[in-house]
Amino acid sequence: MPAMTKKPSDDRSEIPFGTGGETQQRGGPVLTTNHGVPISDNQNALKAGARGPTLLEDFVLREKIFHFDHERIPERIVHARGSGAHGFFECTTPIPDLSRASLFAKKGAKVPAFVRFSTVAGSKGSKDTPRDVRGFAVKLYTDEGNWDLVGNNIPVFFIQDAMKFPDLVHAVKPEADRGFPQAASAHDTFWDFVSLMPESMHTVMWAMSDRAIPRSFRMMEGFGVHTFRLVNAAGDWCFVKFHWKPKLGVQSTTWDEAVKISGADPDYLRRDLHDAIENGDYPEWELGIQVFDQATADSFPYDILDATKLIPEEVVPVKIIGRLVLDRNPNNFFAETEQAAFLPTNIVPGIDFSDDPLLQGRLFSYMDTQKSRLGTTNFHQIPINAPRCPMHNFQRDGMMQTMVPKGRANYEPNSLAEAGEDGGPRASDQGFITLASIAEPAAEKQRIRADSFADHFSQARMFYVSQTEVEQGHMADALIFELSKVKLEHVRGRVLGQLRNVDEGLAAKVANGLALDLPPAVAPAREPLDLDASDALSILKKPPVVKGRTLGLLVTDGADEAIIKAVTEAARKAGATVKIIAPKVGGVKTKAGKILAADEMIGGAPSVLFDAVALVMSKTGADALTGDKAALDFVSDAFAHCKAIGNTPEAAALFAKAGIKPDDWFFGLPQGADRLIQKLPERNWVREKKGM
Ligand code: HDD
């Protein structure tokens, strides 16, 4: 019987399948059109005869193709590539004296959260590990509305005034005429722009540091960047900066790793977040606040309204008031992560903006961009964006309206209640009240940059001198790499001229790396100050955390199971994960003759994907791998990336073939298993110095 004339089965779980003849029995609901009509055949279009033309009448086909044709929406103009997760925020130290925000009122009180991490410059399909700032956007669904803290993993920004944002983004995105490079700042237009905008130099230093190549979203700090204000019930206010502190510590990859990871696993950070949550290793951050008053703000040698400046934690300590836990992956990437709309304008009573001109510009941009991306002013009705508290107002209609308000009260004031009708919602005396601006009351309207924003280099210098020697070396290497991709010689020279204002030693190193003479310094608008170094700005000065790290364990046939078990157990005890890598993904036959399944094969799991590696192998297994390029790269990369290496004696053959001389970061197994695991979050940086 031709499929088109087949009657829908009475048993609605019997779904036609294949060429139309056979059916597939499976559970689940009946397939229907978008309008609820049961579909009898999802495999064949309606035709005039078996080999005849397809009929326009086929509403099932037309609806399916029509919907498919419109599946894509515009990607975010920046932060296009991202991934998100659900969780909750819990107040651990209430601060009613500082803020009347309901989410900070009670110890133990929880609100649902959705967080989206992102890169900035790359498009949606780009890789996870370019050198770039990472977005750290948090939506907290409080009982007084949504609070979105739309921050980054870097506490400062490239520009001081929102007026410059489109220029910054145009400059860093693929060049207009050629459409490349993708997800990279290493090109003419970016460096042309930033070298002409000395205010960017502090954030450029961060972008050239290892902060811009994070090992995991779970191991990044997050920052609200701007100065905001907290307001208590009495209307008293103070300034505040928000910080997210990861429980797993801060960790980055090296540049060479980041480059290689982007080939081995372009979804590295996305997968890491997803898998950790699936495995029940819920990432967690503490929410910290730096609180200060106007007098303190006035005492700083920089302006707290200038988003290119931070306040060192040593100057204003970070007080921990809550925790953020991500414990659920989205069910659907598009519906939730892609459609998530973050708005810096989403604040709640108890929190307010400051006059930071960058923040003020953002207050317009995000609402506007959602309309273009999500197509309707009703984007707040999409479940991921909708508040979890009651929402009533007189706004009506618009595209994709899904609410069905009753009655005729769509205006205010009205007296409909006097006639017994529903008069609609009323303003509340507990509602959001905007704080008075702190600008001079009689200020003239003018397009101007405040004089207090003129110091562009003091904090760039402070950031640089706060780093360890290793981190400073990475910054110099990053600058040399980036500028080597800049074809315009005058731009290279101008960057060097700017760098001299940051640090003469750094400028000289970079010039040497480019084989250029140091040009004169570009005259700074204000002579930089030598601010005190801040240890909190360095990654390597932070305590290493073993939890959450992954060991890549390379095994061969004949490997000793007891040793594998000892290593796995040591990792488990420390909260780390082990991935078994074998020559073939089906696994290996151990010394005891048992099959040990592998997670990955060597060619699919280079050592750049792991924090440290271990090699447990038999003599024949090791000898066989000396002829395997992927195995040789596995060990030589692990060594070059300064990682700890655990091994059984048989692996010596592989080290010799790879030209590696074991040092004191090689740990004999099984006795060195615990010491190896302790080294997961650390690197033996002296290898870098030896030029490996
Ligand atoms: Fe922005 C997205 C963070 C300055 C305009 N921004 C966006 C996202 C993050 C940030 C994390 C992604 C949100 C998500 O995951 O959906 N942006 C920042 C930070 C800034 C900043 C920390 C400075 C401190 N941004 C900034 C300025 C403007 C914008 C000055 C415009 C005047 N940003 C946007 C945008 C985006 C955006 C075009 C693109 C997608 C979106 O808003 O929702 O409106």
UniProtKB/TrEMBL annotation:
Which reaction is the catalytic activity of this chain?
A: 2 H2O2 = O2 + 2 H2O
UniProt GO molecular function: catalase activity; heme binding; metal ion binding
Q: What is its EC number?
A: 1.11.1.6
Q: Which UniProt keywords apply?
A: Heme, Hydrogen peroxide, Iron, Metal-binding, Oxidoreductase, Peroxidase
The record, for SUPFAM superfamilies, names: Class I glutamine amidotransferase-like, Heme-dependent catalase-like
State whether keyword Cell membrane applies. Answer: no
- Needed cofactors: heme
**Which top class of enzyme applies to this chain?**
oxidoreductase
* Region spans: Disordered: 1-45
* PROSITE patterns assigned: CATALASE_1 (PS00437), CATALASE_2 (PS00438), CATALASE_3 (PS51402)
Residues that bind heme: 76, 116, 165, 362, 366, 373
Q: Which family does it belong to?
A: Belongs to the catalase family. HPII subfamily.
Q: What is this protein called?
A: Catalase
